[in-house]
């Protein structure tokens, strides 16, 4: 289904929930990705214009290509083959306001989103990506459209009494999280040996690992863990908590990523995002995907990038 000064390794992340299986989702994603690749040529390399000219090019061609990772609720293809998720739905609204009529999904693995963006496979990352200093060295971000705490998937009754990463370390729990997730860094910072972490594709695989006893706990975002366990008879989600980053409780924020040369597009996107925040329309757009008032935020990308 992210993730701040969190990641010890240079990570690139996120989660998913109940609904179509990951296999069926990726099948639909791959089909749409093929259409997207054939229907729209690669964006030309950045011009010498300060701040870039991508917005003007997108207006001219009438479509913006969104890098997604096939993860509910952030950005995915639904059972009807339609692009949806909190980030794509928000992008649709903002790009429409910017004079770009359509968006087109370009599916990839989460860890390939930033490389794909910088190699111009798509125009913007719309995957609810956590904003952190490591990623800020590679791309520029919009201000976050949401904030998020962490949570665990554990067996029913939480037999080991796990409530945070410190508990995982102290109780020698078998720990898993997703490929490229911020939670890798959080666990390592708490003292968990990185080589002992089981890395799985997403929170659906994490749920399966907990249910079958391969691990004691899977870490993800509070939103995705509470969604993925809804139909499970064997597992539950713990209460949300703030991971400890550099000795302090930390709240993550997720946003949209742009190539460093395209600050004009990022700035225009940000202006429309702030209008949606001020009007309350942002929550209306995100609410169908499980977001609440508690996930709304006034944090900035500058804060999350480390100043």
Automatic annotation (TrEMBL):
PROSITE patterns: TAT. SMART domains: PBPb. Keywords: Signal. It comes from the Bacteria. Residues 63-293 form the Solute-binding protein family 3/N-terminal domain. InterPro entries: Ectoine_EhuB, Solute-binding_3/MltF_N, TAT_signal. This is Ectoine/hydroxyectoine ABC transporter substrate-binding protein EhuB. The gene is ehuB.
